[in-house]
Amino acid sequence: MNILFVGDIFGSAGRHIVREHLPHVLETNAVDLLIINGENAAGGFGITPSIAEELFDLGAHVITTGNHIWDKKEIFEYMTVPEDSHARGRRVIRPANYAHGTPGFGVYQGTLPNGQEYAVLNLQGRVFMSSCDDPFRKADELLSQITAKVILLDIHAEASSEKVALGWYLDGRVTAVLGTHTHIPTADQRILHHGTAYQTDVGMSGPYDSVIGVETELVLNRFLTGMPAKFEAAKGNPRMCAALISCDGATGRAHHIQRIMMGE
What we know:
This protein is α/β, with parallel strands linked by helices. The chain contains six helices and twelve strands. It has one domain (2-263): Metallo-dependent phosphatases (Purple Acid Phosphatase, chain A, domain 2, 4-Layer Sandwich). Strand 8 and strand 9 form a beta hairpin.
């Protein structure tokens, strides 16, 4: 079974580069399951229902998010659906360790046309980020309720140490632990001892002539003067970053992970 995870789509440049490359990447690698992190897809901050629909039309089975999920208010209603709903909004998930009662869900369990069951989890880190529940204990809780063997976790976190620790903690219990949020791809992809594919950060699908997606001059001015400014998504040098994982569908154990970075 082949799984493609596309890293944080940032703004229109990110959406453009993903549209350009995704069809041939899916075909060339015989991808069975496509997961996209879309939390920055709307101008670099949040995601809208129309953009979510666009990503589903590209073939996404699940869209994961992170700390910017609530930046566009119209997403609230789109994600407020029953747990057993077949609406596409049910397949946009937010970190599961957010407070009880927030819109949406933190895990999605599905079945592919060939009968293969899978689950996608979304968690957010606590180090250097806004308060949320313990991602380690939340992972334990969610895994106790999941029957699928193929399980992918998007850990949206700032600290590399927290992501690495979660990878080791879940080794052998999930198919892949993939980091998002920092927008910088890391070169530490590997298969851990008990069959879990791991990468600290998949990287951003967006403009790399920028400061993690934002126009460079705006960020430099903030650092040099300390004055507030409205950040705007950059557009230069877009690249699609992704991770390709191959696993045994019967056991969920991964046997290969590959970094992907593709420019225009």
